[in-house]
Design brief:
71 residues; 3 strands; elongated
Length: 71
Amino acid sequence: MAQVVGTEDKRRYHLRFLSGRSLWRNPKFLRLIKNPSGLPEDEIENMDAPTLRRSTRRTHPPDRFCPNGEI
């Protein structure tokens, strides 16, 4: 997602992406996305990324096919 930061005319829009990258795009390639979460934009920018959870289930090594019983 990106934010429009400027325009020279109605055919070129200057976009700034969340990564900091800046590009010019034709309006044919743009699509308006409203705030789907309903939160104010400053709260969305300050939100932390969710922490990843790992399973505590014990894992087993895979059973390998060994025709002569060698490992």
